[in-house]
Design brief:
Helix content is 40%, strand content 0%. The protein is mostly helical. Bound molecules: zinc ion (ZN) (2 copies).
Amino acid sequence: MSSWLHRLAIANGIAPRPFAGVLGLGDGMGSSRLDHSLTHGVATLLQQQADIATEALSAMTMTGPALTPLLLPLRENVRPNRSTWTQYCPQCLAGDQAPYFRRHWRLATRISCFVHGRGLRDRCPACRSGIASFDQTDLMPQHFCARCAFALRTASKVFVKTSARRLERSIDDICKVGMAKGSMTIGDLTSRLLGAPVIAGVSLGKTLTNLSTSSRIRCFEWLADKPVGWLTA
Ligand SMILES: [Zn+2]
Ligand SMILES: [Zn+2]
């Protein structure tokens, strides 16, 4: 949703930050908050002005209840080894005609790209900032860092062990099955996943959603070689 809004802004000749003002979202991560909860006022305005159906708008948000606990928290400022609010695959951005940020890049359980088989990134490799399209005051496409204008799609590839990517894929499948069933045990599953860093002994005491992508990659690589009892009985 926020990525689409940022593109909509740029296509209409207005940078994302002032556009958030037009929608009455205020400063900061107002547009990113819409991913979690689309307000009635903004939805109505977009339906009228952008000629888009309610269903299409809802499909862009991250409001599915089951996986909400696994979303990376909205953070404006980046701290060392901590998560940022979204990740990206440089190769996906490179392949897009109109580069955009995928919904699943917001999930802490995702560490790699299923299409390209490489690790995701959560920072600009040049200035170490998180993705800050919401704060962008220049008319610049989203595949450039909003802080230093580095071309994110040229970022180098991140290697992730095959075993860790297999574990990531299994977790994704288990979550999808849990959601499809509307299973009562999905809460148990999400709390096991959030506790994965404690099991792996990576950054003790932090939950999965608080770790940077590189720490979560280390966590998955460690867990991939161990019995799966921590995840599923
Ligand atoms: Zn990709
Ligand atoms: Zn940068």
